[in-house]
Specification:
The chain has eleven helices and 14 strands. It has two domains: 250 residues, no CATH class; 82 residues, Nucleic acid-binding proteins (OB fold (Dihydrolipoamide Acetyltransferase, E2P), Beta Barrel). The strands form five sheets. Strands 10-11-12-14-13 form a five-stranded mixed barrel. Strands 1-4-5 form a three-stranded antiparallel β-sheet. The chain has a two-stranded antiparallel ribbon with strand order 2-3. The chain is an alpha+beta fold and 412 residues long.
Length: 412
């Protein structure tokens, strides 16, 4: 733009245009609330004819969409946010690994990018905006966490290994734009004076344990939770000890607790998202796989069209509770499947030793995650450990049917 800011437009498929409220598909989606990813199969919230077809922004197809627009300045601040209905056409479907490697300078441009100077210029501009936003969010206290996600490596329908999902500049670009877009929608609905569902992560109840972890690494955190101070500590640790930073990130994530959906009434202050250091945050950018995003889309469209709101506050509260409950259940299913897959892969490695981090301690026992490969299991006969402690463990047994992986302390 003439003033140096970068105008960003994010297109989100208009799922509501095809999944009408109170239709059978809508009732199914409201019951399921989320797609479930088991590692070997996806159980979609919506039929694939929709989620991979007419409600997917497929390449070179005109699609009904909601466009979320905002401007990014050199400090990373997003302003002039607005949202509107549109027809959009995706000019190029690209993949994170190849775009990320190219943006980071250790890979050649993907074929579609190399063949189109306009597309290359667009991606460079998007990356510039996203990199400004990363810095801006961290300055305001968003947590610079680096948890490791995995996927099974399949060979003829059998899991043979577990691979890390690598993050890069392309994944960062999308994350930053999604956070900003969700903020625009939250503020738009707040200014419109309509009730909505917000995505929140409350202030950590186990802040005291986070303080202990920081003290063990030579840093004093305040007695009261402070995301800005916590992130300053995380950034310093990432520079000081990058090899163990994912361990620390995992411990902080576990101690912060899961996110949840809540009803926020007009002119009511939202509890906010501690991890993102934002007060106004909703879920609106993935309506094909999350029901709260569909609901938010309907609320926004009703306001844009000056029509009555489609949900009462009581209905929104019920949806928020159901979505939180089902997300928790989906997370359990995904975690159980990860354990079963890991148990299959590790069967051939009983007796091996691994570096690990304690991820949970409760009445059932002590749980650890091995660092390479990243798999979780129970630590047998362990006492006196807490989340974040680092240990060396030996694999003693696996049970793929039950998803059990058992470790013992090295030397025990």
């Amino acid at each position: 733009m003439p003033d140096g800011r970068i105008r960003v437009l994010v297109g989100v498929a208009d799922v509501d245009a095809y999944v009408h409220k109170r239709s059978l598909i809508d009732q199914h989606a409201q019951s399921e609330t989320t797609s479930v990813y088991t590692g070997v199969r996806v159980f979609p919230m919506l039929p694939t004819e929709l989620s991979e077809g007419i409600t997917s922004l497929n390449e070179n197809e005109d699609r009904a969409a909601i466009v979320i627009e905002f401007c990014v300045d050199a400090s990373g601040a997003a302003s002039d946010g607005k949202a509107y209905r549109a027809l959009v056409r995706n000019r190029a479907q690209l993949a994170y690994p190849s775009v990320g490697a190219w943006l980071e300078g250790h890979g050649s441009a993907p074929a579609k990018v190399a063949a189109n100077p306009q597309l290359e210029a667009q991606l460079r501009l998007q990356d510039k905006a996203a990199q400004c936003m990363v810095g801006g969010r961290f300055q305001h206290g968003a947590l610079d966490l680096e948890t490791v996600e995995t996927r099974p490596v399949m060979l003829q329908d059998e899991a043979v290994d577990i691979a890390k999902l690598e993050k890069n500049r392309a994944t960062s670009l999308i994350e930053e734009f999604m956070v900003a877009a969700n903020g625009v929608i939250a503020r738009t609905l707040e200014e419109a004076g309509v009730a909505s569902i917000r995505r929140i992560v409350r202030t950590p109840k186990r802040w005291g344990r986070i303080v202990e972890l920081a003290a063990g690494l030579g840093t004093t955190l305040p007695a009261d939770p402070d995301s800005k101070v916590l992130n300053d500590f995380l950034i310093a640790q990432k520079r000081k000890d990058p090899d163990h930073f994912p361990d620390l990130s995992l411990a902080v994530v576990k101690l912060m607790g899961p996110g949840e959906y809540v009803l926020v009434k007009p002119h009511e202050v939202s509890p906010g998202h501690f991890g993102l250091a934002v007060q106004d945050y909703t879920h609106s950018t993935a309506p094909n796989r999350r029901f709260p995003d569909v609901v938010t889309q309907r609320i926004l469209k009703a306001w844009l069209s000056q029509e009555p709101q489609p949900y009462s506050e009581g209905a929104l509260n019920a949806v928020a509770q159901r979505c939180t409950e089902m997300e928790d259940q989906a997370r359990k299913v995904e975690r159980e499947m990860q354990k079963r897959i890991a148990a299959v892969v590790l069967q051939k490695h009983i007796g091996q030793s691994y570096r690990a981090i304690v991820t949970g301690v409760n009445q059932y026992g002590t749980f650890v995650r091995a660092l390479e490969p990243h798999v979780e299991g129970m630590l047998m006969h362990a006492k006196g450990l807490d989340v974040g402690d680092r240990v060396t463990v030996r694999l003693i047994s696996t049970d793929p049917q039950r998803g059990f992986i058992d470790f013992a302390l090295q030397g025990a």
